[in-house]
Amino acid sequence: MLDLSAQRVLNIWEQGALLDAEAKTQSLLSLIAPELSMKALADLVLGERNKNLLELRQQLFGSKLQAYVECGECGQALDLEFLIEDFGFSSIAHIPEIQRIENGNINAKIRLPNGHDLEALESVKSVNDGRNLLFSRCVLELYRDDNLVVLQDLSEDELSQLELLISELDPRMEILFDLSCPQCSHSWQSPLDIGSFLWREFDVYARELLENIHLLASTYGWSETDILTMSNVRRKYYIERLLQ
Ligand SMILES: [Zn+2]
């Protein structure tokens, strides 16, 4: 369990609360990798980020993830429970940021997407524009039959193939739940945006902390600084005592 001081929790929460989703995720990442600058955190490739965020979730709130989804075929409500270990991300070794892909007569040099790419995607309006933007940033070189070509030279099929191959370069790039409906046997995969998921949990945690500060301050007249510098164990004891 990551032992965060109350001051640190509230600093990160305060810093992230007014920012966009990508900056919130980077604030969370700073908890698990405090030695990295904000730029270095944004440099992390998506797979590395997901691995770190799952590890942070495990250290803050445990391994069990619970979710609620509805079957896309019959509408049946499903309550799901997964363990972070089930994704197997921690056993995957470092994956190089720059890689080459070969598919038929197409050969490409690829940079794996990172936090800067997600920041750029925030202003994009459609899935198609998003894909084109990612391609323009992450496809560094592109050849067909050893001749240098540009993305616009590729057919829709070739672009789809390229997209699939890029997504397979790092198995941690997307966190996917395997789902199966007991009602109609429909099977599908649902993605988890661990950054937003974890921020929602962290937000609840920070607000509870603020409520506890409010309760202690209004009961005992202690200052916010006094309560924040108190150990987590001692603060918890007073709260339990008050709620008895
Ligand atoms: Zn179903």
Word description of this protein:
- There is one protein chain.
- The protein has a four-stranded antiparallel sheet. The chain has a two-stranded antiparallel sheet with strand order 1-2.
- It has 244 residues and is of the alpha+beta class.
- The longest helix has 27 residues.
- The chain folds into two domains: 139 residues, no CATH class; 72 residues, no CATH class.
- The chain is elongated, with a radius of gyration of 22 Å.
- Strand 7 and strand 8 form a beta hairpin.
- Helix 2 packs across helix 4.
- The two termini are 27 Å apart.
- Bound molecules: zinc ion (ZN).
- The site of zinc ion has 8 residues, from loops.
- Zinc ion (ZN) binds next to loops.
Briefly summarize what is shown:
With 244 residues, the protein is α+β, with helices and mostly antiparallel strands. Helix content is 50%, strand content 18%.
Topology record:
Elements: H1 6-17, H2 21-32, H3 38-43, H4 46-61, E1 64-70, E2 77-83, E3 98-103, E4 106-111, H5 115-121, H6 127-138, E5 139-144, E6 147-148, H7 156-167, E7 176-180, E8 187-191, H8 194-220, H9 224-229, H10 232-243
Antiparallel strand pairs: 1-2, 3-4, 4-5, 5-6, 7-8
Helix pairs in contact: 1-2, 1-8, 2-4, 2-8
Question: How many domain regions?
Answer: 2
SSE series = HHHHEEEEHHEEHEEHHH
Mean pLDDT: 92
Classify the helix fraction into a percent range. Answer: 40-55%
Cα radius of gyration in angstroms: 22 Å
Strand segment tally: 8
| Shape, principal axes of CA atoms | elongated
| Secondary structure category | alpha+beta
Q: What small molecules accompany the polymer chains?
A: zinc ion
Cα-to-Cα separation, first versus last residue: 27 Å
Distinct helical segment count: 10
Segments where pLDDT lies below 50 for 5+ residues?
none
How are the strands ordered across the major sheet?
3-4-5-6
Largest sheet: 4 strands, antiparallel
Strand content: 15-25%
